[in-house]
Amino acid sequence: MRRLMSFTALIYLFCVAILAVGQEQPPEKRIDPKTLPKSDAKGNPIRYANKTGHISNYDESKVKPYTLPELLKMADGEPVKNAEMWFKKRRPEILNLFATEIFGRIPDNAPKVKWAVASVDEKAANGTAILKKVVGTMSDEADAPKINLTLYVPAAEKDAYKPVIDRGAAWIAAAKPMTADAAAFKLLGMQWSGASKAAMQEVAKDLIATQRPDGGWSQFPWMESDAYVTGVALVALAESGTSAVSDPVYNRGTQYLLKTQFADGSWHVRRRAVPLQPHTDAGFPFGKDQFISAAATNWAAMALTYATGKGS
Fold first, then answer.
1. Which pairing describes strands 146-154 and 129-138: parallel, antiparallel, or unpaired?
2. Number of Cβ atoms within 10 Å of the Cβ of 77
3. Which of 8, 55, 156, 264 is the most buried (most CB within 10 A)?
4. CB atoms within 10 A of CB 272
5. How far apart are CA 303 and CA 265, in angstroms?
6. Radius of gyration of the chain measured on its C-alpha atoms
7. For the chain, which ranges sit under pLDDT 50?
8. Quick one: CA dihedral 233, 235, 236, 242, positive or negative?
9. Global confidence as pTM
10. The CA-based dihedral angle spanning residues 7, 11, 12, 15, taken in that order and rounded to the nearest 10 degrees
11. Which residues contact 215 (CB under 8 A, 6 or more apart)?
12. Whole-number Å distance between alpha carbons of 87 and 91
């Protein structure tokens, strides 16, 4: 239902956008687009469609009478009866309305855009921002159309950020992890917030002590080892520098990952969450276990990347 409500906002956007669609003119009243102003009195851009004769309209009083589509009713009038009907039938209808009536579609043969940074001003806005000018080139042709993009990002204010980081670091240092993955994330947080090597070694010692004889880690003592917690633990040990990838601990962990990897390159981990929400298939293997399996595959791949010397 929450997802249904989120699309209510999109319908309102659809309603507003309808007011800006073109106003059809009979063929005998078509005008030369060169005579049109670039914008109306309020600064809204004026566009002319050669094929249909439509002119951009932002005046609601000029819009012909219309009836907005109902959110939970199909185009043929059939009510949406359940979540499956929403996702498989009604939602695609609404997305198609946005594509055909508002935003349009990207042509299948549209050239790829190649982006490049043209210039950087690190003291823009009186030193409070970094200004980047980026140019996108649509194809490799010499006279290809270009997209000029200006980006502003906040400049680092270390003096303002440091107290926030210090408070977070103090909380992480005092936290008592109850699970192996929590210990691994604590170790990562300590590394990123600049904790001492000695303090991190103490956390790493406790994490290493929970490694199973099979080389893996489990979230809780009564659970089997899995690629998710094993991957997180190995990445934390490597990232923090508390265990070299050549250490026996790390080697046992990577051997566990290699033995449990599937032929397609993924890892399977059984879900822990109570299935309160309807399952939506995202295309990853293992059905209803796919969410945690995807996370496990990410962490396992990163852990193995460190073992090859290419981690960062």
1. antiparallel
2. 7
3. 55
4. 12
5. 14
6. 28
7. 1-9, 11-28, 312
8. positive
9. 0.54
10. 170
11. 225, 230, 252, 253, 254, 255, 256
12. 5
Q: Which two tokens stand for residue 54?
A: 């439509």
Quote the pLDDT of residue 180.
95
The single residue listed with the structure tokens 């852990």 is 303
**Domain extents for the chain?**
2-103, 113-155, 159-307
CB 271 within 8 A of CB 292: yes
DSSP character at residue 63: S
Neighbours of 239 (CB within 10 A): 17
**From edge to edge, which strands make up the β-sheet containing 146-154?**
113-123, 129-138, 146-154
Report the distance separating Cα 286 and Cα 227, nearest Å.
14
**For the chain, what is the total number of helices (H) and then of strands (E)?**
10, 3
d(CA 267, CA 286): 9
Residue type (1 letter), 226: D
- Measured distance CA(180)–CA(223) in Å, rounded: 11
The whole-angstrom separation of Cα 273 and Cα 289 is: 10
Element (H, E) at 307: helix 290-307
Residue 274: per-residue pLDDT: 75
Q: What pLDDT is stored for residue 120 in this prediction?
A: 92
Q: Is 45 exposed, middle or buried (0-12, 13-18, 19+ CB in 10 A)?
A: exposed
CATH number of 159-307: 1.50.10.20
**Beta carbons of 57 and 21 less than 8 angstroms apart:** yes
Which among 9, 113, 21 is positioned nearest to 62, based on CA atoms?
Answer: 21
CA 68, chain centre distance (Å): 31
Compute the CA torsion angle 10, 12, 16, 18 (nearest 10 deg).
70
Q: Is residue 120 helix, strand or coil?
A: strand
Distance CA 4, CA 52 (A): 35
Within 10 Å of residue 205's Cβ, how many Cβ atoms? 10
